[in-house]
Amino acid sequence: MIDMWNFAEQLNKYGPNSPNRQWSKNEAQSYCTWVTRTHYENFSAVSILLPRNLIPHFYPVYAYCRWSDDLADEVNQGEEVLILLDWWRKELLKIYAGGNCVLLHPVMVALKPTIEKFQIPQNPFLDLLKAFTQDQFKKRYLTFDELIQYCENSANPVGHLVLYLADSYNEENARRADLICTGLQLANFWQDIARDYHQLGRIYVPEEDWLRFGLTETDFAQGSATKEFREMLRFQVERTEQMFQEGASLLERLPSTIRLDIELILQGGLGILQQIRAVDYDVLTKRPKLSKRDQVSFLVKVLGKSLFRAMRGPFGLKPRIDLCYQAIGSKNPTIQIY
């Protein structure tokens, strides 16, 4: 197994044209663990705060999402992407077909027992592929409502998957999780405006907002942000922050075992918005990014809240105190970004 993630190599090794082989559960799980640990992401879903019994199930879910995303963005755009996404969809559906279907990809082998244990329906997995397919055709969004509809497939299914893993899925929890997940997706869009435009030819900022602030596509192609661009992005950041604030009510509805991890994800999203503010909304010059110091700060903040709740009484988070001390005393208490 290679040390660093190179998707072209992964696709050659494990894609539809690779030699067929059967994978043991241990081999498949090890591969998903490696995929997860080799990636930087803003928002941690597999952190030291996650209950140990859930970590092996989060790894294959992340690996599925990672492969789906890279099939859409790391392969030459066009017909090849659509063929690969269709292959990936069919590999997933083998899990749900039952019978004697042979799973040939390590991610699917590892994912199968997780799907069965938590009774996860196929829709969240398939909805992600709908969004990645849409990316191949749609490069602009006219309205904010149109962008939100895209997020319903590109981001919200991830929140639903987490709720299933936490045995906490219901319609009201899903609605609140959608606010957080859409907020995370939007924060990533605002962070990556330059990259998305120059590398992928996409602009996720709604065109109605360009017009409102007097911008044209030329403003996205420039190497620095105009005053109008900064004001437009300030508006987007404030709107996204409000979404996070509304979605934060999900935390009190979750089991204590998963609550800290979700709160850490939320802090990561808010942190990206703060980083955008810190560069005065000029994301065209430099991509805002969370530093290790930021990550540790979020971790300490969440752990501090946990300790405070634990001292409030028997219905707080006392079972998590040992984990809090373990994390604070760690030689490297940084967030394991998934």
Brief synopsis:
The protein has 338 residues and is an all-alpha fold.
How is this fold's topology laid out?
Elements: H1 7-14, H2 25-37, H3 55-73, H4 79-97, H5 106-118, H6 123-135, H7 144-154, H8 156-165, H9 171-191, H10 193-200, H11 207-212, H12 217-221, H13 227-247, H14 256-278, H15 292-310, H16 321-328
Helix pairs in contact: 2-3, 2-5, 3-4, 3-5, 3-6, 3-8, 4-6, 6-7, 6-8, 7-9, 8-9, 9-13, 9-14, 13-14, 14-15
Walk me through what this model shows.
- The protein is mainly alpha-helical.
- It folds into three domains: 23-137, Orthogonal Bundle (Farnesyl Diphosphate Synthase); 141-286, Orthogonal Bundle (Farnesyl Diphosphate Synthase), CATH 1.10.600.10; 291-338, no CATH class.
- Helix content is 64%, strand content 0%.
- The protein is built from 16 helices and no strands.
- The protein has helices at residues 7-14, 25-37, 55-73, 79-97, 106-118, 123-135, 144-154, 156-165, 171-191, 193-200, 207-212, 217-221, 227-247, 256-278, 292-310, 321-328.
- Helix 4 (79-97) runs antiparallel to helix 6.
- The radius of gyration is 20 Å and the shape is globular.
- The model is unreliable at 306-311 and 313-338 (pLDDT under 50).
